[in-house]
Predict the structure.
Amino acid sequence: MILKCLKPIILWVVSIFFLVLVDYAFRSANGLSSALYLNELLWFGIPLLIGALCALWLFAILKPFTLKKILIGFLLIVGATVFYLGFILFYITGTGVDSF
Amino acid sequence: MTIYIGARDLNGMPVGTHQFLLITTDKVIPVKIDGKLITPKVLGKGIKGYVIGAQNRNRRLQVEFFERSDFIAVKEYFGGIEKSFFQSDFDAELKEVSFSNSELLSQVRLFQLINAFTINQSLDPIKYPSAGFGFNSNSWAGSMIKHSGGVVDTDFSGLDIFHDRLIPITYFLPICPSASRPVLNK
């Protein structure tokens, strides 16, 4: 079951990598150093949409629910959110889009 | 003329706060920073000023006037830009800084510090820390206020990490120090 649960997480991770890669490629091609290339609707909307789909897929895999399965699902979602925030933070601050 | 410390949301991040300085002025007097003339810009109805912040540029903490996001954030605050309901804004927050000196003297002092910091960055650059965890733009804004004799609470709402970490005064002085400057963000 754990392996099955990893599929939506892998999809999530790959999507975030791809989103960042696309933005970085367009920024580099257009010489845009201190701003995102992607429109904010896409930048925030795509992760939100894919995240919701991955969460639905994850909970479909975990059905029928038990306390243990809900806990696993919750921990995976927390982990995926932490990954998203950390990865985006490194991209934003590390490549000069914006700085703390 | 009023001197503010400001904070805004990070561009492209759901969390995180970036701090900067704002000096409003009635007069369009250019100031010379590192040989370049900087002129105040219109921020809103009848409000002009200088927006100054430190940024990660080429992995160095560098001062930038009217940085794109800082400038938009201030314009949003003063009504110089209208945003639609579906567009995210920078949620800028400004705090007026109080000084014991006159505001003109304080303004001059701030520009002196900025000028010296900018020049010193070419000699003793402060490396921008990984993911901002170290002496960062929040530290820079707070240090500027502190070293210019201003008093304000630099803790803003949101995740403004390292806002209370003071960059040593030696980075803001127009001198070649006898002892080398401490290396920050090693």
Q: What stands out?
A: Residues 2-172 of chain B form one domain.
